[in-house]
Specification:
12 helices; TIM Barrel; alpha/beta; TrioseP_Isoase_bac/euk; triose-phosphate isomerase activity; glycolysis; binds 1,3-dihydroxyacetonephosphate
Length: 250
Amino acid sequence: MRIPLVLGNWKMNGNGESGAVLLSALLKSDLPFDQVACGVAVPFVYLATLGEKLSGTKIAIGAQDVSNKVEGAFTGEVSASMLKDIGASFTLIGHSERRTYHLESDSQILEKTKQALSVGLKPVVCVGETLAEFEEDKTETVLKQQLSKLCSELSVKEWESVTIAYEPVWAIGTGKVASPEYAQKVHSFIRNMIATVDKTIANQTKILYGGSVKAENAAQLRAMPDIDGALVGGASLVAEQFAGICRNFR
Ligand SMILES: O=C(CO)COP(=O)(O)O
């Protein structure tokens, strides 16, 4: 049984005050925590204060990125142990915006995943094809490439803590959600790839869908057997929307 997981990715939005207001509203929303796990990935600078606000609650707090290095002369980077130290329980890794604007490679994404795992921070590794790749019917080839290092280099034990988020780039922030059937097909492909590592692990691994998820389309996505939750961008900035998505994923 995979308990559904809904994560908000706030990206570079808001400030300390709006973040606190959003969390207060979420905490009052009577979320179905016995049926769905929830978390928010907030900007680094607000992790400490917002983490304190969430301390003792069922909403997990995480980061949007992590360094691929342990420590040292890496100006501007934030290490996995720093994130752990400040109370983060998970981190997004390899979001398409990081791959596009910061040219993150699959090797770096593997290194970041290893760093997170080494301190007990749960990695949520993002994969997905661009619009051009989708139109050229290259989705499976792209996903194979993005997942192959993780499949060959992580141990079965390490996979126990990994979550995958499938985010087709053409669906991010565009309002064009993937059809539940299309997303299911891709999620099943991803699960089959993980099964090359270990079949039990493949059955246990959560595969989230991301890309224009709203309260209105969450239930149809939830109905698919291999969609285990959502990674939500824009709609996670609106308490009612995010709460609605959490409820529709239970
Ligand atoms: O990138 C995303 C989450 O990481 C998805 O963003 P939207 O939900 O705004 O499409």
